[in-house]
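The instructor's notes for this session suggest beginning with a concrete chain rather than abstract definitions. Hand out the sequence below and ask the class to guess, before any prediction is shown, which regions might be ordered.
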Amino acid sequence: MTKILRLWILCISPLCIGCSQNAYEPGATETGAVAGSALGAGLGAIVGNQSGHTGGGIAIGAGAGALGGALIGAQSDRQDRRLAEQEERLRRQEEEIARQRREIEELQKRGRTKQADYSYGDNRGGSAFGGFDDRLGPPN
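After discussion, reveal the predicted structure:
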């Protein structure tokens, strides 16, 4: 069993060290590959020990686990990117709605001001342009 543990550590250590040395925060792809490799190597060691080929079991298990973990992690990364893009679109739409609301309020204020200016006509009603047109007569 000690031989299996040493072989497992020998196979997994470079993978773990290599992934932990990234200059950026590892995403789900890298994390999945490391976790899958570790689990696959462990299971491969158990299966390989039963069949008499411990080293081969570890190598095959680590490779298969790394591939599976990376595929699952990559899907998770894609989903995270899509979610971030959707949140950014939503933020932009909310900003645009707020801008349009401010514009509508400003236009409404201007409209009220112009309406108040036009209400200073003569006593017969009408507009600021001198009331009703005298040729048409007063309104009924």
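Then share the key points. The radius of gyration is 37 Å. Residues 52 and 63 are 19 Å apart (CA to CA).
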